[in-house]
Amino acid sequence: MADLEKLVEQLSALSVLEAADLVKKLEEKWGVSAAAPVAMAAVAGGAPAAAAEAVEEKTEFDVVIKEAGPKKIEVIKVIRQLVNLSLTEAKALSETAGGKVLAAVGKEAAMDAKKKLEEAGAVIEVA
Question: pTM of the entire structure?
Answer without folding.
Answer: 0.55
